[in-house]
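Two proteins, back to back. First:
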Amino acid sequence: MNPAQVFSIVNAMAALQWLLLIVMPKWKVTQWLVNHAAVPLLLSVIYCIYIAGFFSINGGGFGSIQEVRTLFGNDNLLLAGWVHYLAFDLLVGFSIIKSAQASAVSHWLVIPCLALTFMFGPCGYLLYQIINKIKSSK
């Protein structure tokens, strides 16, 4: 498969997992997926396959913005970077769900945090931490 096809598949996988987190967080299938980190694990395998190309990119690396730009100029490594975001943002979403359920934070308050995490990772995590801190201080 070419990178564009894999991109479509991984996006669909992640979007479905996010939908389950937002719409059906307590469903046994969602809980199983969260507890076993099934989607992030699969994304991790895909990431490892694509990041292997890193070693063949002349001038690419992580020491400067120019080196990173060189890496992301390659579609396979751009895909690897995107899959990296998808996997880690999902893990953050799982952390939010687990924490919210353990702390009895209303899912209505968690939904914006999950949506923000899906789109802008750290912003959703920050919002959840603020909500959780306010709730726990009462």
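And the second protein:
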Amino acid sequence: MTADFSVEPVDEVAEEFDYFADCLLSGRDPEPDGHHALVDMRTIEAIYESAERGNRVSVRM
């Protein structure tokens, strides 16, 4: 079984800038916020630490 799938290319950078500009003009905070980014970074750090140690590592929030 096969399927054909095609999508129009999207300029992701332009989409991000448009979204950010829309947030500024409408007074909304862009998402995800800085807290979300911090959680991502702590998760990535825990992944590297876990790989080095060879066991589970807790992610501090």
